[in-house]
Amino acid sequence: MNQKLKSILAICTGILPVSIIMIWYRLTHADAFTTNEMLLYPLFIGGFNILLILALNKYLLKGLLSDFNPGTGKWHMDIIAGLALTAIYFLLVFIERATVMRFLPQGKPPSPEVINLMTDLSNDPLLLAIWLGPVVWIGVALFEELQRVFFMNCLWQLSKNKYWEIFTIIFVAMAWGFMHLYQGPFGIISVSIQGLVMGFYFHKFRRIWPLIISHALYDSIQIIMFVIQVS
């Protein structure tokens, strides 16, 4: 089996199943996740998929762990880059709220599961610590960014054309945005734009740690702000 077929098989095994299931569930189930489900699902599903992606990369694609972080750099520069990316995300959200949001339907209430989660987190410091710790860093940031980089790496194996590489970044960003459809039109657009920043950053510097750090910090800061508001 040549490398292109292996890459397609890796996508069909490591990316499509969980993505299709997530989208299908959101489209067919109106009931919201409970707080316990929102704590456990990212850890179990994300943890399993992390192991699956690493196994596919090693045994199917015959790759190395360094394939996810092949660029040159040092840990302190990754932290600085992560902080800078986090600031960019918040700046983009501010700009999007002042522009894009004006053209979208208004008046949609926040997701019930988000309200329930924030209420429970504000009332239970242990749940808040679990969410801001392993859930955000492993079940959300590490899982999604490992998945994003794996997806792009596999697609880049199909062609070395620079326009294909750019198309891949845009396609993956839009796919990630659509998987956040439960956040409504603004959430889809915002996540897609954020995905473009992440995709082009990885394409340029080939460092995954700034993506993980910025993703975790961005989510954590938003959660803390929501919890303060709920409190």
Secondary structure: helix percent: over 70%
Strand content: under 5%
**Rg from Cα:** 18 Å
Overall tally of domains: 1
Shape: globular
Low-confidence stretches: none
How much is the average pLDDT?
Answer: 90
Structural class, from helix and strand content? mainly alpha
> Total number of β-strand segments?
0
Q: H/E series, N to C?
A: HHHHHHHHH
Largest pleated sheet: none
Can you characterise this structure?
Helix content is 78%, strand content 0%. The protein has 231 residues and is mainly alpha-helical. The protein has one domain. Helix 1 runs antiparallel to helix 3, helix 4 packs antiparallel against helix 8 and helix 4 crosses helix 9. The longest helix has 32 residues.
What's the gist of this structure?
The protein is mostly helical and 231 residues long. 78% of the residues lie in helices and 0% in strands. It starts with a helix and ends with a helix.
Question: Strands, helices and their partners?
Answer:
Blueprint: H1 3-14, H2 16-28, H3 35-60, H4 75-98, H5 112-123, H6 125-156, H7 162-178, H8 184-205, H9 209-230
Which short descriptors sum up this protein?
mainly alpha, 231 residues, 9 helices, 0% strand
